[in-house]
Amino acid sequence: MSDTAIEADGLGRRYRRGWALRDCSFRLPAGRVCALVGPNGAGKSTLLALATGLLRPTEGTVRVLGTDPAAAREHIAYVAQEKPLHPQLTVADTLRMGRELNAARWDDTTARSIVAELDPRARIRSLSGGQRTRVALALALGKRPELMLLDEPMADLDPLARHQLMGALLGHAHEQGTTVVMSSHILTELEGACDYLLLVDGGRIRLGGETEDILAAHVLLTGPVGDLAPHTVVESRTTGRQLTALVRTEGPVGDAWQSMEPSLEELLLAHLRSPEAPVLLTPSAESREAVTTA
Ligand SMILES: Nc1ncnc2c1ncn2[C@@H]1O[C@H](COP(=O)(O)OP(=O)(O)OP(=O)(O)O)[C@@H](O)[C@H]1O
Predict the structure, then answer these.
(1) Predicted structure pTM score
(2) Contact indicator for 9, 290 with CB cutoff of 8 Å
(3) Candidate from 22, 37, 44 with most ligand 1 atoms within 8 A of CB, to mutate
(4) Integer Cα distance of 38 and 183 in angstroms
């Protein structure tokens, strides 16, 4: 089993109207639960589709579980944003199809538990968006994949269902050592769930690495307006004579400043408001290809 779930090197994808993703080099170690965040149109779905092998790169490479994405497909479960399922099949037929397609590994107990509250005779076309999500997640978990790629999986679930399914997903991932990549716009939901982070913005990776290490590399400073050197300023705001700034520290912070660790939401929002802030990849998130060829 590879110790790397995804490794991208100079990865790019162009559509007719321009680049959706460009110059992406990063590594996602295996066994992590990774939040994939970024604004609308940032390139998150494109990155996930490239990792499944459903899209081909225009430039660069992506390797998944140590091999070509197409060769790894059997070990990948992908839940696309639009949750494509066969509308005319029933819930029970859909799970049966999952079992037949993945006979060697199928986890029927988990798959059934995810859809336990649905009528097995109900046709997919008659289900609500959130109910379809349940079926799509049941298929994904039933497959016992090594890598789950989930594109906004929780977006149309009610808060209770979201809580329950997130718990089931994380419990399963923990038990099986599955790597999970989950795109989402709900930052507070990701905070407790994900131990790894990829921030994509404008088709490029802006932050990558262990959530804890990325948070620890930043502080929120409040103090008198003044020079913040040698620290790297991600974002700063002045109110009268008071300055509030999110910085990457380059040494001790002077006594004049009050410092606080930012929340994940504060950190991400500051980076999204400051596209010029330098990229930060922790050592584990650096592509080995890029490192060895640099
Ligand atoms: N099939 C396509 N044809 C042409 N352009 C596309 C296609 N798919 C995506 N794009 C463009 O590529 C860019 C990235 O889109 P993508 O769907 O990857 O973003 P995203 O981060 O997943 O967005 P969202 O959060 O809104 O789902 C956007 O500018 C989008 O318009």
Answers:
(1) 0.92
(2) yes
(3) 44
(4) 8
